[in-house]
Amino acid sequence: MDTSDKTPDDFPRTAIVTGSDSGIGKATAVALAKLGCDVGITWHSDEQGAKATADEVRAIGRRAEVRQLDLSVLPGAADVIDELADTLGGVDVLVNNAGRGSSALLVELDYDTWREVLATDLDGAFLCLRRAARRMIDAGRGGRIVNITSVHEHQPRVGMGAYCAAKGGLGLLTKTAALELSEHRITVNAVAPGEVATPMTGQGDIDVHQQHRAGVPLGRPGDAREIAAVVAFLCSPAASYVTGASWPVDGGMLEMGPMAGSHLQGEDWRRP
Question: How many Cβ atoms sit within 10 Å of the Cβ of residue 207?
């Protein structure tokens, strides 16, 4: 990436990545450290994972601060954004990655689970975005906000009604925030992963090139570092004219709608 014509103020200095104890969040924290950011790392239940992420960030030569973030305790949980910003000396980048899912048909989905998913994936993301945006506006040097959504921001899936609703809502929140924050030179974009080999999908840090996915044009799941690379680009000076966009990183999965429909041989898709 050619950054020879950029002044130091063009570069992000501090980043907060929610849910960065594993998977996409961890890979993103490391990628942003390589971009030159000191990083605020948050965890919900895996403190050791967060500490391991911090170790990787520090090994790159950047500062890392670790805090617990429980987005089921709202609105107070978002205080962590201000706490990390105070400790790091600001926040130039926010990556809203923390989230959860559920698997149940809508008629079988209990209200408490519905609310837990919406609170974590949408309410929590909104509150963190608002805290970070206020700090960016006050600092007056622009900023980057990236919301990790999903291919299910764009396409539904049986058994994932709450998750789809939350991610679809986060996608439109991204576009609204991009409009409202543009005058402050704050860009807001979404990254929409397909299947990625992470603990959330029941997969560890495996060799994705050894896995086969017939319904994905590239024939395999994604690696968390492939998602993180797109996030890092959107947070870099090279993406200064990109805002309000959603970037699918899915191996072509979203392009398979009619093809997948015409090639299904059974009714298994009707169940989660």
Answer: 9
